[in-house]
Design goal:
Elements lengths: L1 H5 L2 H29 L7 H19 L10 H17 L6 H19 L6 H11 L10 E3 L1 H4 L7 H7 L13 H11 L11 E6 L2 H11 L11 E8 L10 H19 L3 E5 L5 H11 L5 E10 L6 E3 L7 H4 L4
Antiparallel strand pairs: 1-6, 2-3, 3-5, 4-5
């Protein structure tokens, strides 16, 4: 009887319905957990520290912009100070490593404007002086590099090579050759993937008008994106995954993205990875603009180019200790 039922259209409809319900439950579970614990809704100390990191990094990036303007980011300075005070309170009056670096960035920001005799808003200046007086903090110093120094470890051991890669926001006027891009993509194609499905694709946007539209839709590259020579859009194809492998799409895409980043660095292509916090409407516009099939999900964008010919700053972006990242069971 079972064998006969399995051959009917009704049974095939039942199987598809059951698959769809499994997919809905799978993503409902993910959405519920993300809504519960994401930075916007979570009130844990770790969540608030992550928010603080995102805030002070905005100031770090501002300190390394190619055409830095004095007085930048003053509203963010106030937000960072308020967030710092909240994290300090959650840590029972102790300054964590994240707090210390936030203070160091605020100190660098403050002393930069003092040296340049640039008058900050009185409320900003008072808030900075007040928070910096609470701890004995040495100002951070963004990394000062040159083209020769930046590429110095390309053929070193992996530890030095990996540590030498930084996000670049100071691009030169010389175009990046397609030969360099092709070599990087070929090298990145060595990335491991689920069952060797290799679901990724890289769209290289060399057209100036389309690149400008793309970066406007992304929205997180103000102050430096316009100086990039090319933009890369990294995607993964949903049709390469089973119904309950939804998250594998982004795992495989993330692995490829990191390998592509190293491959670009190895081929002397300066670059900066841009996230995709776009609305559904913006994503649809990007798909249409670049001609990306609906079956492909955008993992990330990259802007790339040659390095500035002169010395340039890089965000110091301190790394976590191994103890904060490794859990031994």
């Amino acid at each position: 009887m079972k064998a006969i039922l399995k051959k009917t259209a009704l049974f095939r409809y039942y199987v598809k319905l059951r698959q769809k319900l499994s997919i809905i439950k799978y993503f409902a579970y993910f959405c519920k957990k993300h809504a519960q614990y994401c930075m916007d809704t979570c009130c844990t100390c770790k969540g608030e520290e992550a928010r603080l990191t995102a805030m002070y990094h905005v100031l770090e990036k501002g300190l390394t912009m190619p055409e830095r303007r004095l007085g930048f980011g003053q509203p963010m300075v106030l937000q960072t100070i308020k967030q710092l005070q909240l994290v300090h309170k959650l840590n029972n009056g102790e300054y964590s490593d994240v707090c210390h670096h936030a203070l160091a960035v605020l100190s660098e920001y403050y002393h930069l404007h003092q040296r340049e005799h640039f008058p900050l808003e009185s409320s900003i200046e008072s808030a900075l002086e007040s928070i910096l007086a609470t701890a004995n903090i040495t100002s951070s110093a963004q990394i000062e590099s040159s083209p020769e120094e930046y590429w110095r470890h390309l053929n070193a051991d992996f530890a030095k090579f990996s540590a030498s890669r930084h996000s670049v926001r100071n691009f030169g006027k010389t175009p990046v050759s397609m030969k360099q891009i092709q070599a990087a993509v070929e090298l990145a194609n060595n990335s491991p993937s689920a069952c060797n499905r290799q679901p990724w694709k890289v769209y290289c946007v060399a057209d100036n008008e389309k690149r400008a539209q793309l970066l406007q839709l992304q929205g997180g590259n103000r102050g430096f994106g316009q100086f990039a020579d090319k933009a890369l859009v990294i995607t993964c194809d949903r049709s390469s995954f089973y119904a309950l492998e939804g998250m594998s799409l982004y795992v495989n895409g993330g692995i490829y993205l990191m390998n592509l980043s190293y491959a670009l660095h190895y081929n002397k292509v300066a670059h900066c990875i841009l996230g995709m916090p776009c609305t559904a409407g913006s994503l649809r516009k990007i798909h249409k603009l670049i001609g990306i099939p609906d079956s492909e999900s955008i993992i990330a964008l990259m802007v790339c180019g040659t390095l500035a010919e002169h010395n340039f700053p890089l965000a110091i972006s301190p790394r976590k200790n191994v103890e904060d990242s490794l859990v031994v069971i």
